[in-house]
Amino acid sequence: MQHRHSYRAHEALVRFARQQPELWRLLLGLVLVAAVSLAMTAALQTAVAGLFPGAWLQGLADGSTPGAMLVLLGSFAFLSLGVAMAARLFHHRSFATVTGHLRPLAWQFTQVSICLLGLTVLLIALPPYSMGPPMTPNLPFWTWLGILPLSIAAVLVQTGSEEILFRGYIQQALAARFRHPAVWLLAPSVLFALGHYLPSEAGENALLITIWAGTFGLLMADLTARAGTLGPAMAVHFFNNVTALLLFASPTSLNGLALYLIPFDMADVQALRPWMAVDFALMLVSWLTARLAIRR
After folding, report:
1. pLDDT tens per residue, range 220-270
2. How many structural domains comprise the chain?
3. Among 27, 34, 21, which Cα is nearest to 91's?
4. Distance in angstroms between the alpha carbons of the first and the last residue of the chain
5. Is the peptide bond preceding residue 181 cis, with omega within 30 degrees of 0?
6. How far apart are CA 202 and CA 252, in angstroms?
7. How far apart, in whole angstroms, are the C-alpha atoms of residue 52 and residue 220?
8. Each residue's pLDDT tens digit in the chain (296 positions)?
9. Which among 295, 161, 176 is positioned nearest to 227, based on CA atoms?
10. How many alpha carbons lie under 13 Å from residue 144 in its C-beta half-sphere?
11. C-alpha closest to that of 202 among 272, 283, 280
């Protein structure tokens, strides 16, 4: 009963999905989302390669150049396009019913972002002031700053689209079919976690990173159910990825827009695991901060 009371706002999203709750609609929708995303991403990369040939295109494989990262992150918009098509074709609902009303979404996104910005300033001001081995400079500062507006927009597209798919479309469709929160909180989080399982890059750390992603997905699902829009989850996801992609990126991949590279790769067990503990703590603090920001 406590969960149902806490998640009462979620009904504002789920009520539209209840009109067409059959699971086969969700499954066909996911097939369509995947097909649209893959086809449009391939078409975009082909078009970009034809219009702007050059060595930077090699970065499309791992996001190691600024242009390639902008293309890779921007292509996540096709996930949102696929969701919009699936919602209309298989569920007879509009894209706006998946995201939640724009005004409360924008207000909640702004409120959570302000609080997370304050949290970031506080964490920077507090000791310890040493973060271990020095970061490796990546982009020249003025280059990084010059493309920062584009970088921020690209990360917003990427994180927003992932929230629209996992905490929007999938979560709502499952909540329309299954009343118990365990189903519609856990299932999208497991799918989100599997998308972050990269043993070829992370080696022995792959499972730990996957667990981190699953926990993150679960907390974002909880935020969405409490808020009644995707705004808070979008804000937390955005701040997380700005840090991981634009400030301190992995030297392994997806680092083309970063100001610095962390001084070890994802497979380094001894170096990464202490920082994973810090990441888990920051994730929980960010989630609690967002919950406080949207409390009415």
Report:
1. 999 999 999 999 999 999 999 999 999 999 888 899 999 999 888 887 778
2. 1
3. 21
4. 19
5. no
6. 9
7. 38
8. 345 568 999 998 999 999 999 999 999 999 999 999 999 999 999 999 998 888 888 888 889 999 999 999 999 999 999 999 999 999 999 999 999 889 999 999 999 999 999 998 888 887 665 656 778 899 999 999 999 999 999 999 999 999 999 999 999 999 999 989 999 999 999 999 999 998 888 888 889 999 999 999 999 999 999 999 999 999 999 999 999 999 999 888 899 999 999 888 887 778 778 888 889 999 999 999 999 999 85
9. 295
10. 17
11. 272
Q: Which two tokens stand for residue 27?
A: 């499954």
Q: CA 32, CA 57: separation in Å to the nearest integer?
A: 28
* Contacting residues for 32 by C-beta, under 8 A, at least 6 apart: 82, 85, 86, 89, 90
Q: How many C-beta atoms surround the C-beta of residue 137 within 10 A?
A: 12
Let me know: does 13 contact 172? Beta carbons within 8 Å.
Answer: yes
- What is the model's pLDDT at position 131? 59
- SS3 labels along the chain: CHHHHHCHHHHHHHHHHCCCCCHHHHHHHHHHHHHHHHHHHHHHHHHHHHHCCCHHHHHHHCCCCHHHHHHHHHCCHHHHHHHHHHHHHHHCCCCHHHHCCHHHHHHHHHHHHHHHHHHHHHHHHCCCCCCCCCCEECCCHHHHHHCHHHHHHHHHHHHHHHHHHHHHHHHHHHHHHCCCHHHHHHHHHHHHHHCCCCHHHHHHHHHHHHHHHHHHHHHHHHHHHHHCCCHHHHHHHHHHHHHHHHHEECCCCCCCCCCEECCCCCCCHHHHHHHHHHHHHHHHHHHHHHHHHHCC
d(CA 172, CA 108): 19
Strand 248-249: give its sheet, edge to edge.
136-137, 260-261, 248-249
Give the domain extent around 112.
Answer: 2-294
